[in-house]
Design a protein that fits this description.
Oligomer: homodimer
Distance between the termini of chain A: 30 Å
Shape of chain A: elongated
Structural class of chain A: alpha+beta
Number of strands of chain A: 11
């Protein structure tokens, strides 16, 4: 941030009096402009058909597999964001079953929130941001091709929790993008 | 947002081709600038002393009571944000026990995340943003004086869950600021 988004006046980065961190300060008014993390909403869409419980897609940008996910937008809930992203990326309508995972990713200023979900009508197709969509059983999942560590960790936990049909939500922190 | 925060060029609000929502668009480049909700980190600091399980404070701005809470900042985890806010507002060091509540507050573009926490050394005092700090038992809590509906709802659930010593995290949506 170099300029105020309301008045276009210059913004400086310095530590205010009585503070300990560098802040974005409007030079004209002396006011601070907070820099806040963004939330990513995601879900694991499950299909009622046996052995087809995971619904990843392939993104245009990376060529890697992942589950539906994207930035939460203003005026929506996290659940609505997860459902919207699933429809945009996989043309799939889902119902949210429950919160499953929250990941802090502080080095990129993101919070990743993953829900469990049910495919409502079993239909899906590549959305505008996707190359392919597919359902996979646990043994079919292309683990080495999954784009994000948070997705790998969440799916591994999901399959470990599944025999007991108990999916307690968890919070974790990813401190590096290395896989 | 009226101007780009990187180049100070004007930003217009319109529905892009192929989209369904109004977006902030940089006129110079045609690129979109997302508007994303902010996360608020909070905790219920518990004291090991019997009957002193709730640690609210009084804010300068409102004169109402609440628990420690504030906007999550870049480069920190939600838990770190909750601990930082507790220290800033109540001069209290806490250890996070677990995630307890997530509230969507879409009409103000916020996600409110509340943890359970333990006071580490039993010490607390008004921080720079607070007028008073105090510990309350369940029967002493000034319910009618609590500033935010999410805090009232969370504390009511907390005291309902406490006899079983089981605090399953929950997600809810607040659709109005009316009390």
């Amino acid at each position: 941030m170099k300029f105020c988004s309301q008045c276009a006046s210059p913004v400086a980065i310095r530590i205010p009096d009585g503070d300990t961190k560098e802040r974005h300060i409007f030079e004209a008014s002396g006011q601070m402009h907070d820099q806040n993390p963004k939330s990513i909403a995601s879900c694991i869409p499950q299909c009622p058909v046996p052995n087809q419980l995971y619904h990843p897609h392939v993104e245009h940008n990376t060529g890697h597999s992942t589950i539906p996910a994207g930035f939460m937008e203003n005026s929506e809930t996290i659940e609505q964001a997860a459902m919207r992203e699933t429809y945009e990326e996989a043309c799939a309508r889902v119902e949210i079953s429950g919160l499953y995972a929250i990941f802090n990713i502080p080095h990129v200023n993101q919070v990743y929130m993953i829900f469990r979900a049910e495919l409502l009508d079993g239909e899906f197709a590549p959305g505008i941001e996707s190359l392919e969509t597919a359902l996979f059983s646990e043994t079919e999942i292309p683990w080495s091709d999954i784009a994000f560590p948070v997705v790998i960790q969440t799916l591994q936990r999901f399959f470990a929790d599944r025999p007991g049909d108990h999916f307690p939500p968890f919070v974790d922190t990813i401190s590096s993008i290395k896989r």
